[in-house]
Amino acid sequence: MGKQLTEMLKGTLEGIVLAILAGRSAYGYEITAWLRDQGFSDIAEGTVYALLVRIEQRGFVDVAKVPSEKGPPRKVYSLNPRGREHLQEFWRNWAFLAERLDHLHKGEQST
Amino acid sequence: MTPESTEEKSRYRRYLELFTGSLDDKKRYRQVKARMERLPGNYRTAYDALERYLMFFGRADGPLALEMYEDLADLFEQSAANATPIREVFGDDPVEFVEAFIQNYPVGRWMAKERERFTSAVARAAGEAERRAS
Q: Which CATH number is A3-110 given?
């Protein structure tokens, strides 16, 4: 994963994680594993964890503690209505950005 | 978070804590220390380095700062239990991870407050009546 992609990902990681949680509840490690599967190989576990702490504090997710066979209890995160609202805002902004950049890209090609 | 803070404290205890600081906080901090001492060697080394770095930002006092250490303890225990490689926990740039992490706690907010002060000062210097909300 290139440096540029990592930088771009940083700005969108919150939206990505909210989108994952919109589909189903998950705990931190599952989210990181999913991101790696999708090719976001440079994402640090700690970075995802810090993000989860933040979205919990901002009230976007509900958290349930589930005992695990190894290690401390796992925190399972699920998106709540406030989180869904925030996710919708993210998609609106993303659509705007994608459309604008696409426009720029096409303009550049035609000159 | 422990529910101990809701307990009614004795008058003696409250008097004592004027001198010692919160004993509950100290106990929670010791618990985190004990948990981290049980980590496998390399996780322990990484945690010690992280703790040293965090101390630089100010005293780790108060329930919210303790929550930060407890959250970190959870992360490290979970990572050790899953055998997640240290590099995958911290990423290529450990400083970046820590900086993002501490923004969630008062340690980070202390710096955030200074940033806000700086931003306001620039806004005043720029002759703006009200600081732009960020």
A: 1.10.10.10
